[in-house]
Predict the structure.
Amino acid sequence: MDQFGGFTFKNVNTAFLEYILQTDFPSGVSSVYSCISEHHFEVIVMKGNEFIFFNSFEYQTAQDFIYYILFVFEQLKLDTHQHTLHLFGQIDSGSELFTLAYTYIKNIVVYDHKTQASVFNITEDELKKHFILLNS
């Protein structure tokens, strides 16, 4: 008996990738996108509309976080002064993760959760905590 109707099951990482793929990308420019949770984060790298890289990392400290981010930049030969790091989820410009990242990466954009939080009628903190789920 079908109680709930049809649905599509998606891995949380697929949901984040699909969210990022809805973005209009500058042609030929590489950008790094990261969704941060309390002890893990996802990283997606796009070059224009071309998907280049995805991985998920666990971290305990801000130093762990920046190690993995800089490792991605290094392995993909991305310039930390030229390419942009877009941050989503549980981060803001006053956090330790942001401060440390900005020490090494000069172009950082933190997603503004205010408008979307009001659309969902929830707090910004709730949206940050469940960003991928709410955008899937």
